[in-house]
TrEMBL record:
Keywords: Chaperone, Endoplasmic reticulum, Membrane, Protein transport, Transmembrane, Transmembrane helix, Transport
Domain J: 104-165
Composition bias type Acidic residues, residue spans: 492-502, 571-588, 723-747
UniProt-annotated location(s): Endoplasmic reticulum membrane
UniProt GO BP: post-translational protein targeting to endoplasmic reticulum membrane; SRP-dependent cotranslational protein targeting to membrane
Amino acid composition bias (Low complexity), ranges on this chain: 533-544
Protein name: Translocation protein SEC63 homolog
Membrane disposition: Multi-pass membrane protein
Annotated GO CC locations: Sec62/Sec63 complex
GO molecular function annotation: protein transmembrane transporter activity; RNA binding
Entry superkingdom: Eukaryota
PANTHER family in UniProt: SEC63 DOMAIN-CONTAINING, TRANSLOCATION PROTEIN SEC63 HOMOLOG
Length: 747
């Protein structure tokens, strides 16, 4: 029985095949990731943003990075070297001779398979004379020729060749290992074992451990868990936190400490440049003894953030690089601060935290995000967000003739007045200002409070879950920019006759029966149904001959008199409900009731579909691309994001956790939910939408909730028994009426 034989690659041919396969598997993904793709599209996108963002820091940095050919050239060189190595390996592999060739004696003797024994002997003599070693031939070739002649002339040898493919009979199965033989050589065994030990016992555990250690240090938003713990401590300690205190907490984040972030640089020049910078900054509070606010990394980060808000130029190769590193991380850290404060509010309402953070604390954190993106203190004029406007120019905006304090006021000015106000600017600078103004957002918000999963969605009861449906619409300020169009004179407006306004009031005035229709339906629901049911039963009995027509009319008149006598307080609603019943006499009232019922069903179905669509939109992955923010002092491209929440400004408390809207391009619909107060009464809340990037672009809208007394819970078992009793009574009445009808027919 043939055995198995393992052979290592002595010539190196099999190992070349293996090495070529591994190299191409590594080279293909590296080529995909390193190939400079999308560079042309990025340049086109930057060209579109040039008018508005050409003076922004992030735009200049990205433009230089896109135009920089050093990294692109290095990537191309690396890829070219990799593909050259692959071609060399492929060429070497193709030149390797095949070790295993199928044995064929006819091919060795160079004769056809149908050759006779005489032809085999004749061909053998010719090849022997040519390849015999005594005649100067090759010994191995002559041995193959002799073996082939024997295989074709000897019966036993020919049988072995036909059955096993070899004249010598069955051979051992050979397995080739695509490794060179020197790897298993005893002389190199120590080096091979050392390499295996370093790879699998040192490098791999260290790599896995480093990845795991780094992953458990960060939250889902890539914020250090130590930083989150720091925020919890300080916001719980200081429930009412002002902006400057929030700046100190932000600068103390562990992302700015070298032990937690290897990107942070500590230079010897900091000992000279930082003290000089600290002399220019006021209210830095660098002498605070509170830890970690007094640590060197925290003081340095605080200096750089204050310098950013004051728009102070820093050394470009030292402190400026550190400031850009800090500013890139600030928006994410501020979002974490907002979430921490919102969670503390929820814990305080649940009784797990004693100190309830005030509404001003979370709003100051949101202001901190706006300040970081715009590089501006919150007490400065929002007009400084525009290019070419400095603080010394602001005195022209506020005077006896004009009082321009916001960008929207500047946009709505007449073109001539606006150009006269900015007369110190050149035409190019004025065009830059106007392009930036047109890019600013205007957000309109439509708010509606509902109680979903209830019969009456517009009636809010104590403890009910209130859903605030916010419809947001975003448009550019270009729509309100005045282009010098003259307004009609006041005389022309006053000449309009008053009689034209009168019909509008008459048309818009609600009709009497529309005022309390809902309340009427609630109040008279229990009284109307029995009368209507009795009327239908009487009509059915009259058709079957059970009741005479005069009794039917008498019952109808009695019902109408009861309604008129004061069963319902609103006479207009009585007319509304009596009219269909009068029409029932001729058979048309039931059709109207069915039509109204179908319309109500259609409205409920549409509302249900709208809710399902909104839930599906919430489940979808939200995009984080809206509009590029004009941020001239921010080192990274920023998208417009908005915080949306409900607050009680009278009690300085947060009602709903802030919802981050990241995809407000044109229109967006967001739902906010909270529990209504436990006590009935009238409550006034404020729905706020705040930008995380712009100052003085927040929108607030008040909503008033008229909370009613909560409905009494109905015992389900009692209601079930009551409904069963009613059904039994109705069945008995029908049986009796049918029986009486049969008796009357017999009579």
């Amino acid at each position: 029985m043939a055995g198995a034989q393992f052979e290592y690659d002595e010539s190196g041919g099999t190992f070349l095949y293996f090495l070529t396969s591994v190299w191409i598997l590594f080279l293909l993904p590296v080529t995909y990731y390193l190939w400079p793709k999308g560079q042309v599209e990025e340049e086109k996108r930057l060209q579109k943003l040039e008018k508005v963002h050409s003076h922004s820091l992030w735009y200049q940095l990205k433009l230089n990075k896109t135009r920089s050919k050093a990294k692109s050239t290095a990537k191309k060189v690396i890829l070219a070297i990799g593909w050259i190595i692959f071609l060399i390996l492929a060429y070497k592999s193709s030149q390797v001779e095949r070790d295993h060739v199928e044995y064929d004696p006819y091919e060795i003797l160079q004769i056809d398979r149908g050759a006779s024994q005489a032809d085999v002997r004749r061909q053998y003599r010719l090849l022997s004379l040519k390849h015999h070693p005594d005649k100067g031939g090759d010994e191995d070739t002559f041995r193959k020729i002799a073996k082939a002649y024997q295989a074709l002339t000897d019966e036993e040898t020919r049988k072995n060749w036909e059955e096993y493919g070899n004249p010598d009979g069955p051979q051992a199965t050979t397995f080739g290992i695509a490794l060179p033989s020197w790897i298993v050589d005893s002389k190199n065994s120590m080096w091979v074992l050392a390499a295996y030990g370093v790879a699998f016992m040192v490098i791999m555990p260290v790599a896995v451990g480093t990845w795991w250690y780094r992953s458990i240090k960060y939250s889902a938003d890539q914020v250090l868990l130590d930083t989150t713990q720091l925020y919890y401590y300080f916001f719980n300690k200081t429930p009412n936190m002002n902006v400057k205190r929030a700046v100190m907490i932000l600068a103390a984040s562990f992302e700015f400490e070298k032990g937690h972030n290897h990107e942070v640089m500590e230079r010897p020049s900091d000992n000279v440049e930082l003290p000089q910078l600290m002399r220019e900054l006021s209210q830095l509070n660098e002498k605070s003894k509170e830890r970690p606010l007094c640590y060197p990394y925290s003081i340095k980060a605080r200096c750089l953030v204050h310098a950013h808000f004051s728009r102070i130029d820093l050394p470009p190769k030292t402190l400026e690089l550190d400031r850009q590193l800090i500013l890139r991380k600030c928006p994410t850290l501020v979002q974490e601060m907002v979430q921490v404060v919102a969670q503390l509010v929820a814990l305080a309402h649940a009784g797990r935290v004693s100190n309830l953070p005030r509404l001003e604390t979370i709003e100051n954190c949101m202001k901190l995000s706006q300040m970081t993106v715009q590089g501006l203190w919150d007490n400065k004029s929002p007009l400084l967000q525009l290019p070419h406007i400095r603080e010394d120019n602001l005195r022209h905006f506020v005077s006896k003739r004009r009082n321009i304090r916001s960008i929207r006021q500047l946009a709505t000015m007449d073109e001539k007045d606006r150009r006269a106000l900015l007369r110190n600017m050149t035409d190019e600078e004025y065009e830059d200002v106007m392009e930036v103004i047109k890019n600013f957002p205007i957000v309109e918000m439509d708010v509606q409070s509902l109680v979903l999963d209830d019969e009456d969605t517009y009636t809010i009861t104590a403890g009910a879950i209130v859903t605030v449906n916010c419809k947001l619409k975003r448009q550019s300020m270009e729509s309100v920019v005045s282009q010098g169009v003259e307004e009609p004179p006041a005389a022309e407006v006053d000449e309009e006759p008053e009689e034209e306004e009168q019909p509008e009031k008459v048309v818009n005035k609600p009709k009497p029966w529309q005022k309390n229709r809902k309340g009427k339906q609630k109040a008279g629901k229990a009284k109307k149904k029995p009368n209507k049911t009795q009327h239908q039963q009487n009509k059915k009995q009259q058709q079957n001959g059970a009741l005479p027509l005069d009794k039917l009319k008498e019952g109808e008149n009695n019902r109408i008199q009861e309604v008129k006598a004061g069963k319902d307080e609103d006479s207009s609603n009585s007319d509304w409900e009596d009219e269909p019943d009068r029409e029932d006499e001729d058979g048309s009232g039931s059709d109207n009731d069915g039509q109204r019922q179908s319309e109500d069903d259609d409205d409920n179905w549409d509302a249900l579909q709208a809710r399902i669509n909104r839930k599906e939109k919430v489940l979808e992955t939200k995009s984080k691309i809206s509009h590029t923010v004009h941020a001239p002092y921010f080192p990274e491209e920023k998208q417009e994001w908005w915080w949306l929440y409900v607050a009680d400004r009278k009690k300085h408390s947060l009602i709903t956790a802030p919802c981050m809207v990241t995809s407000l391009q044109e229109e967006e619909e967001v739902e906010l939910k909270f529990a209504a107060p436990d006590k009935p009464g009238t409550y006034q809340y404020t729905v706020c939408i705040r930008s995380d990037s712009y100052l003085d672009f927040d929108v607030m809208k008040s909503i008033k909730l008229d909370v009613k007394e909560a409905k009494e819970a109905v015992d389900a078992e009692a209601a079930w028994n009551l409904s069963e009793d009613e059904d039994e009574n109705n069945d008995e009445e029908e049986d009796i009426s049918d029986y009486e009808t049969d008796d009357e027919e017999e009579d």
